[in-house]
């Protein structure tokens, strides 16, 4: 438990050190749960902290990514850190096994390509393991994706639409489908300030939820996203609330001053 807490404290320290304005920004790396395909600019640091809350469990998901240039970024994640978990007190369901114990320590890698004026495509992955006291209880985990975003220039009312596919192994997604669809949309309400946002990881595994909400961008470029989580049909997942804080691209040279 001390090791897990130390990892979470490290992410919190990174979060705190960014609480001052910057003039640079880009899109979010994720909508709520679906990758956006946006690549962090070279020399910048991306940070995102998400909280998933329902009546049975509350989890924290932290992401850091570094812009490498030429459409590449790489980073690491601390996923599914349980703030509270009431499911341990419930009888297990043998017909729906869950993914193994968390949190999950993951590395992430993305490569993006601007195909034309309105179409961007990206492939990426997260791979890692869940720390455990014994090797027998530690498992390799993988989530890989291909995502496409479509945005018509000079037509902001059309918004930005996302479609793609994913693969997740059993250790990451629990029982159910390994392959599935990724869908999302982001439509401006107030230019550069407020946008409607929704996404969905389609399927019938532990990842399969849809989130409907919005994202607000502050003057210092921090983003606050709030959404209602809805389980996809036949997934057996819970309704809940998603809260997400994003800093889209902090220039690393400022840390050296």
Walk me through what this model shows:
By secondary structure, the chain is mainly β. The chain has one domain: Porin. Helix content is 7%, strand content 51%. The protein is built from two helices and twelve strands; from the N terminus they run H-E-E-E-E-E-E-E-H-E-E-E-E-E. It has helices spanning 2-16, 170-173; strands at 44-53, 57-69, 72-85, 104-114, 119-129, 140-151, 160-168, 179-190, 194-201, 209-217, 223-231, 240-251. A twelve-stranded antiparallel beta barrel has the order 1-2-3-4-5-6-7-8-9-10-11-12. A hairpin with an 8-residue loop joins strand 6 (140-151) and strand 7 (160-168). The longest helix is centred in the first third of the chain and has 15 residues, at 2-16. The chain is globular, with a radius of gyration of 18 Å. Mean pLDDT is 83; it is low at 1-27 and 94-100.
How many domains? The number is: 1
Order of helices and strands: HEEEEEEEHEEEEE
Q: What is the approximate shape?
A: globular
Helix run count: 2
Estimated structural class:
mainly beta
Per CATH, the superfamily is monomeric porin ompg
**CATH architecture descriptor text:** Beta Barrel
- Quote the beta fraction: over 45%
Computed over alpha carbons, the radius of gyration is 18 Å
Helix content: under 10%
Q: What brief labels describe this structure?
A:
disordered N terminus; single chain; mainly beta; Porin; 12-stranded antiparallel barrel
Topology:
Elements: H1 2-16, E1 44-53, E2 57-69, E3 72-85, E4 104-114, E5 119-129, E6 140-151, E7 160-168, H2 170-173, E8 179-190, E9 194-201, E10 209-217, E11 223-231, E12 240-251
Antiparallel strand pairs: 1-2, 1-12, 2-3, 3-4, 4-5, 5-6, 6-7, 7-8, 8-9, 9-10, 10-11, 11-12
């Amino acid at each position: 438990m001390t090791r897990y807490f130390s990892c979470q404290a490290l992410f919190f320290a990174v979060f705190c050190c960014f609480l001052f304005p910057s003039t640079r920004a880009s899109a979010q790396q994720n909508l709520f749960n679906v990758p956006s395909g946006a690549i962090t600019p070279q020399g910048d640091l991306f940070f995102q902290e998400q909280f998933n809350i329902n009546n049975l469990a509350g989890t924290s998901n932290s992401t850091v990514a570094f812009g490498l240039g030429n459409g590449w970024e790489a980073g690491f994640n601390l996923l599914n850190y349980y703030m509270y978990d009431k499911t341990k007190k419930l009888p297990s369901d043998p017909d729906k096994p869950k993914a193994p114990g968390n949190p999950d320590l993951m590395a992430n890698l993305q490569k993006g390509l601007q195909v034309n004026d309105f179409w961007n495509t990206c492939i990426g992955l997260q791979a890692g393991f869940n720390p455990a006291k014994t090797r027998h209880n530690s498992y390799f985990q993988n989530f890989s994706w291909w995502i496409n975003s479509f945005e018509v220039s000079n037509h902001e009312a059309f918004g930005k639409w996302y479609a793609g596919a994913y693969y997740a192994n059993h250790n990451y997604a629990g029982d159910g489908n390994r392959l599935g669809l990724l869908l999302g949309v982001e439509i401006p309400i107030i230019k550069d300030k407020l946008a409607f946002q929704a996404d969905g990881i389609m399927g019938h595994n532990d990842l399969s939820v849809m989130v409907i909400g919005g994202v607000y961008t502050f003057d210092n470029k921090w983003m606050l996203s709030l959404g209602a989580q809805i389980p996809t049909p036949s997934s057996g997942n819970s309704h809940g609330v998603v809260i997400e804080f994003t800093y889209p691209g902090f220039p690393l040279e400022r840390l050296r001053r």
